[in-house]
Amino acid sequence: MISDQLRRSGIAALAVFAAIMVATATPAAAASPGLNFSDDKTPNPTIVEDELTIHEHDRAQMGDPLEYYNDAGEVTTLNASVNSSQTTPVGLRFDKVNAEAFGQFPRIDAESDNWATWTSAANWTTTSGASSSVSVTDADADGVEKVGVDASVASTETATATFGQNVSLESDPNKRVLTFGGTVDELTTDATVEVRVVDGDGDYRYADINASRMASDETVIANGTGTSLVFQERVSNLPLVAGGDGTLDSIQQIDVVASEANAEVTISWLDADRKGEVDLADIERDTDDDGDLETTTVTNIYEGGVTNITSLSTLGDTFDTATIADLSVYNVSYALSDLTDESEFSVNFSSGDAYNYPEKLELYGDLSVKTAIDLSHGDLALEFDQGLINERYAVLEVGSGVDSSTGFGNASDSAMTGMTGALSGQDTTAELVSSATADTNYRFHAVILYQTEEVDTIQDTSAGMGPTGSGGGGFFGGIWGQITAVVAMVGGGLGLSRLFGGGGN
């Protein structure tokens, strides 16, 4: 008859067996190398990129700056990270932003038979002096509706492009905000461009593009050529020119007037209806001319070009569903710590006796940068932050273009290049591949020597890896190894034959 002790031991073993079965039936989380990458002594080879360009960032579908449409049209996230120490990690041009609000002037019923928007060149009219000319053309680009105004102007003359269809703002015209976004493509010497809001009898207020003015003045759109300019100013703050009764008592049209010499502008945003300025984003700007940059929410971009912002989340509500063409993401890292597929790495701790050290880590990692139609990559380099003295790196080598299906340790000697000579001392960064290329697999291999207490700190205990664990598991990493371990533990003191009811004494 089975004793109570034996029965209790058998029940305990079966309970552990059942627990293992339940645990292993649970879907596994994404794999990780099982290292503590917050420790300076932990190796973390990284491909670094100065500037990544996402050609279509759809804010209605995407939130992370590393999201993009893959070649199958699916939203995908790069397996990478952005340097968090940057104050402005992303950049964009506002003339490459497709926001619905940009084309909503005038704001009337879109189903009306005579509805018109400024974004169609056919809705503009032109006039000019006898020796001058002006044309308005559709200039859509970067997924954004635009119009181009190209004026050839003789001295003492003007050339005017007018949008007036369905523009009739009778109430509070001076409380409106004149908004102009776009590019100054040409501004020849002596040329001036005025963007005017005009009432029914010829009175108008204006903002200008003028080389003799300060770009940061509140009534100046720009003082030279430039891209991605944004101007917003309350109409009451703009200079008034009397052409009728001397009072701007309505807004009936918007004129773009070039005078004295040739000028060309491309308009991507035009409005004179809203009574408040649109918040663009948070940037770093020297707002008080003391030489120090401060974070500020801006409504005007007079510097032009790419505007570097503190975060996509700081874009104003106007841009919640906007699409950004050519979003720049700076200082992107494709690191060992970002790998989540266990086929991409191997981590093994073992005795370092052969090197006269208590422990050694043998590490393999396959690092690569994905390519896609919607991605353009900048300069890439494979770097290694050295957390130990040179002598601790018994092996350090890199293979460029190693087939990722080649088992770790099986790459030919000719495929791997020794890199210990690139090391320059603890707490320095070694450049292992100075001109890396996207879509190339770089195999990193290192044998690193550690003291026992260091091994304890560089392992990520939350990953469930023991002191001599590996990314590839092993017999005791599988279910049958775990079951055997339990059986041996429980049956060791009682005899396996007795535990499973075999022949007794």
Structural topology:
Elements lengths: L3 H22 L20 E13 L8 E3 L5 E3 L3 E2 L7 E3 L4 E2 L25 E5 L4 E6 L8 E6 L5 E6 L13 E11 L4 E7 L5 E7 L9 E3 L3 E9 L5 E2 L11 E7 L3 E9 L9 E5 L8 E5 L8 E3 L13 E13 L9 E7 L7 E9 L7 E3 L2 E7 L6 E8 L16 E2 L9 E9 L5 E9 L1 H7 L20 H13 L4 H4 L6
Helix pairs in contact: 1-3
List keywords for this structure.
505 residues; Jelly Rolls; nine-stranded antiparallel sheet; 4 helices; elongated
**What is the CATH architecture descriptor of the domain at 101-271?**
Sandwich
What CATH calls the topology of the domain at 101-271 is Jelly Rolls
For CATH, the homologous superfamily of the domain at 101-271 is named as: Galactose-binding lectin
Low-pLDDT segments, ≥5 res: 5-29, 464-505
User: Which class best fits the helix and strand makeup?
Assistant: mainly beta
Overall body shape: elongated
Distance between the first and last residues' Cα: 11 Å
User: Approximately how much beta-strand content do the residues carry?
Assistant: 35-45%
How many distinct beta strands?
30
Number of helices: 4
Radius of gyration: 34 Å
Which CATH class of the domain at 101-271 applies here?
A: Mainly Beta
Mean pLDDT: 88
Helix share bin: under 10%
The largest β sheet comes out as:
9 strands, antiparallel
Any overview of this molecule?
With 505 residues, this protein is mainly beta. Among the domains are: 45-85 and 332-458, no CATH class; 101-271, Jelly Rolls, CATH 2.60.120.430. It contains four helices and 30 strands. Helix 1 (4-25) runs antiparallel to helix 3 (479-491). The longest helix is centred in the first third of the chain and has 22 residues, at 4-25. It is elongated. It starts with a helix and ends in a 6-residue tail after the last helix. Mean pLDDT is 88; it is low at 5-29 and 464-505.
